[in-house]
Design a protein that fits this description.
alpha/beta, Enolase-like, domain 1, TIM Barrel, 2 domains, 8-stranded parallel beta barrel, 16 strands, binds 2-keto-3-deoxygluconate, binds magnesium ion
């Protein structure tokens, strides 16, 4: 069997997505997500200019060997562009293998470990009241786990606050928008938000919160401690994790569960965090961490240390990534939770899929492969529309972590 074609499809049905489609001499095709929010065309070029010429003629059944070829063979390893490109190839090849076998992807991985996949949705509001109401709406929709983010008095454009009724989409302008960050205001406000949420809705639902890399290790330790009475499912990205050791300090001072990893690309980015049991959940997902083949290695390492998975599932991961992630979640023994930010109707129409939401859980489908396709005619109607993620600055103008 041979790969006879591979093409990159860039489309913007409300937001930008990059998809790799691989064709074979047996007529079976597979697709993989290659979207890197705000840097989409770099992955498109990496694939078109550097990867696709190597793929033509290769045997698509040799998923592991092709992964190693693209990782070791480039000499330049790791990084979000390389690993998203490798992920796209890997996802498309697992899709093809599933279709050849006539089996859904989770069966190829080892079969079901669970009947359904617990997901968390995103509730956000411009202020405390709006956020409390938004959490109520998610409870009404059946969600068992809800991430709460709120506008903060005195902070302009806080992370996680949507515009109107739109899904929260941070990549909103051709050049990065400026947002302002103020740690003391955030630290004063956030425990009050979760106190109010627990007073209003009790302790039955899981609540999550994303700090989005804004705090120092000691500030993160303070916040974790202050949130303990409100029993969060997790506190995410409390401090930037390039310095994995920083989590020792946070861990020593709080029992609030810690989640990290949406910006990680390889097992090396999380090795110390996992081996020293400095986190509870690892958030890598298919598209940014080298595909199913590599994500499985990360999850297996994590399982040794009772660290569970909590894959990134923002809208900038396309339905192709979500479909593949749900098969992974259905199999992976040390599953924790899956993030689920619903895509718009336009996006769902471009990427027909067989996964479905029911009562707080997602179910992957039974179609062979990962169960997601791309409607290329419809995709062509939505040309690429460059959009950047914002930057954050302190009130004195110092650049901070967005
Ligand atoms: O592209 C960046 C988003 O994916 C990110 O800001 C979303 O932090 C995020 C999350 O937890 O979903
Ligand atoms: Mg996050």
């Amino acid at each position: 069997m041979k790969i006879t074609s591979a093409r990159v499809i860039v489309t913007c049905p409300g937001r930008n997505f990059v998809t790799l489609k691989i064709g074979t001499d047996e007529g079976v095709t597979g697709i993989g997500d290659a979207t890197l929010n705000g840097r989409e065309l770099s992955v498109a070029s990496y694939l078109t200019d550097h990867v696709i010429p190597c793929l033509i003629g290769m045997d698509p059944q040799r998923i592991e060997d092709i992964w190693q070829y693209l990782y070791r063979g480039a000499y330049w390893r790791r990084g979000p562009v390389t690993m998203s490109a490798i992920a796209a190839v890997d996802t498309a090849l697992w899709d093809i293998k599933g279709k050849m076998a006539g089996m859904p992807l989770y069966q190829l991985l080892g079969g079901r470990s669970r009947d359904r996949v617990l997901v968390y949705g995103h509730a956000n509001g411009r202020d405390l009241k709006e956020t409390v109401d938004a959490v109520g709406k998610y409870i009404d929709m059946g969600y068992k786990a809800i991430r709460a983010q709120s506008g903060i008095p005195g902070i302009d454009k806080a992370y996680g606050v949507g515009r109107g009724d739109m899904h929260y989409e941070p990549a909103d302008a051709r050049l990065p928008t400026n947002t302002v960050w103020d740690t003391p205001k955030y630290l004063n406000f956030t425990p009050r938000l979760f106190e109010k949420l627990r007073d209003t809705y009790g302790y039955e639902r899981e609540l999550l919160h994303d700090v989005h890399h804004r705090l120092t290790p000691n500030e993160a330790a303070q916040l974790g401690k202050a949130l303990e009475p409100f029993r969060l499912f997790w506190m995410e990205d409390a401090t930037p994790a390039e310095n994995q050791e920083a989590f020792r300090h946070i861990r020593r001072h709080t029992t609030t569960p810690l989640a990290v990893g949406e910006v990680f690309n390889t097992i090396w980015d999380c090795k110390q965090l996992i081996e020293e049991q400095l986190i509870d959940y690892i958030r890598c997902t298919v598209v940014h961490a080298g595909g199913i083949t590599h994500l499985r290695r990360i999850a297996d390492l994590a399982a040794l240390y009772q660290v569970r998975t909590g894959s990134h599932g923002a809208t900038d991961n396309s339905p192709v990534c979500m479909g593949a992630a749900l098969h992974f979640d259905t199999w992976v023994p040390n599953f924790g939770i899956q993030e689920y930010m619903r895509h718009t109707e336009e996006t769902d129409a471009v990427f027909p899929h067989d996964y479905r939401f029911d009562d707080g859980f997602l179910h992957c489908g039974e179609a062979p492969g990962h169960g997601v396709e791309i409607d290329e005619k419809l995709a062509a109607k939505y040309p690429y529309d460059p959009a950047c993620l914002p930057v954050a600055r302190l009130e004195d103008g110092t650049l901070w972590n967005w």
